[in-house]
Write a structure and sequence with these properties.
Blueprint: H1 5-14, H2 17-26, H3 31-38, E1 42-48, H4 50-56, H5 65-69, E2 81-89, H6 98-106, E3 109-113, H7 123-132, E4 138-147, H8 155-166, E5 174-180, H9 186-198, E6 207-209, H10 216-225, E7 229-233, H11 242-250, E8 256-258, H12 278-289, H13 293-309
Helix pairs in contact: 12-13
Bound molecules: zinc ion.
Amino acid sequence: MLIHWSILLHLVSLLSVRHQQSLLALFPLSPEETDLLDRHPVGFDSHCHLDRICRDCHLPLDASFSEICQKATPLDEFIVDLQGAVGIFCDPETYPTPQEVENWGKQGVTVCVGLHPKKTATEQEFQQLQQLLKHPGVAGLGEVGLDRTEPVGQWDGQMERLKTVLQFVQEKQVLVLHCRGMEAESSEVYSCLRYMLMSMVKREQLIHLHCFSGSVATARQWIEVFPNTYFGFTKMVTVLPKEQREAVKQMEEGRLLLETDAPYFHFFGHRRSTPALIGMVANEVAKIRGVDWMHLLEVAVANAQRLYLKRLPPQ
Ligand SMILES: [Zn+2]
């Protein structure tokens, strides 16, 4: 009975850490075995709000990326070796300073700055945004866009602010778009945003359509007008109606990005989300597409690096 591995493991766990360590020293693992034990698939979160996670978790705004990620950790089977994330700063009250943009960069966080459609900005804040976009460490403008879940009275204001900020986007920067409608008219708001952009940005513009919830037809129309669009998927895919789930299923691999949109879209058993949960997002999207989650994670990491680090169109 003593040689059964689970009993041996249990007995070892009863020893003090010092005794466990001396046992390890007696029977050391080979470098290959250690490597195998430590290895997790590589992950990258293409869209999260680090400032909002800090606010929700009562962390200081200068908390480190790894400190933030510890605020919600995944189930063991979905642990990933997180290479970094795209940090979206779209609330004027927490825009990063140029120094902070650099600090995030050193931690693997690619910074985008924008103005969330639910937010307004003062003249001074618009200027601050425009200045920040000139910083070489800022990879994109976003998120910006339209949100039709807000009262009708606010729609004109959203359009005006969007027109203003679109003028700030720099050559080779990514445009990160938020596009949300009431469920039934979701294709209508995508059309509305597309028409607006047609007169304001180039056809070749690199676009990240964040938290995509449109149909196959919407995705097709979008690609026709803006061929360099990537589509981001969050945990929201689990609650999409059939027609929209079909778009998740049929999306070309080369355009697909995975996002936690943390602190939002938390998983059962968590009160909030963090970039550390990107493996669990990969699992949900992979289930819909009928593929292995680790494969999908690998594809999404390559796409995110192509878009945000190399600033290249989809493959
Ligand atoms: Zn977001």
